[in-house]
Amino acid sequence: MTMKMWRIIVLSTAGAALAGYVYGRIEESAGTRALFESFNGTSASSTFDKVAAEMTGNAESADILTEGDMFANGLVSPAGGHRLQRFGDQLSDGLQAEWMVIGTEAGARVVAPAAGSIEYARPFRGYGNLIILQTEDARHIILSGLGRTAVWEGQYVDQGEFVGDMPRKEGRPQLIFELRRGERPVDPET
């Protein structure tokens, strides 16, 4: 077996970073999952899966997000789960996706990707509960597919603040995450 060295940084809920080096491979155990969960307060399984994916180079698993992951544009991931669709992906009708889709666990927490003011927080057509957040720099974030919202229109929220949760149902609920600057869709990750 070829030994590899991996640098792992885990953020605690207090914001302190713990860094270490691991040689070889990570094996899942109840203790390992508990360690991840105790350090960062997010879903231990998605955190473990994400680290394992990065270490093994598993492309399918590399599309795992952890709630609060920081994107290049300063937004954070609104939920943990698998990226089912990226902004710009080709759709079956030949158009390109103007959003990203995250497959979450049933009842998963959803947080505000940025600080701002809630403009809309209620059911919308067949999209489940929908939240529209206007950021401080005048972008609009649209989160749809929620089972429950925990915010109200006009409320100010901080980045990473709890805004609702996904439906508690069989299968994998899907959170649709859209970012717009004016009428123009923008990739929420870049």
Name the features.
190 residues; mainly beta; Glucose Permease (Domain IIA); 2 domains; nine-stranded antiparallel beta sheet; 2 helices; 14 strands; globular; disordered N terminus
Explain the overall architecture.
- The protein has 2 domains: 5-65, no CATH class; 81-186, Glucose Permease (Domain IIA) (Distorted Sandwich).
- The protein has helices spanning 30-40, 44-56; strands at 5-11, 17-23, 64-65, 81-85, 100-103, 109-111, 116-123, 129-135, 139-146, 148-149, 156-157, 162-165, 174-181, 184-186.
- It is built from 2 helices and 14 strands; from the N terminus they run E-E-H-H-E-E-E-E-E-E-E-E-E-E-E-E.
- It is 13% helix and 37% strand.
- It is mainly beta and 190 residues long.
- The strands form 3 sheets. Strands 3, 4, 5, 7, 8, 9, 11, 13 and 14 form a 9-stranded antiparallel sheet that branches.
Q: N- to C-terminal separation?
A: 37 Å
Q: In which range does the helix fraction lie? A: 10-25%
Query: Which fold does the CATH topology of the largest domain refer to?
Result: Glucose Permease (Domain IIA)
- Sheet-strand content, in percent, reads 35-45%
Task: Look at the structure and give the CATH class of the largest domain.
Answer: Mainly Beta
Radius of gyration of CA atoms, rounded to a whole number: 17 Å
> How many domain regions?
2
What structural class do helix, strand and pairing data support? mainly beta
Can you tell me the CATH superfamily of the largest domain?
Answer: Glucose Permease (Domain IIA)
SSE run: EEHHEEEEEEEEEEEE
Count of DSSP E strands? 14
What do the pLDDT scores average to?
A: 78
Shape: globular
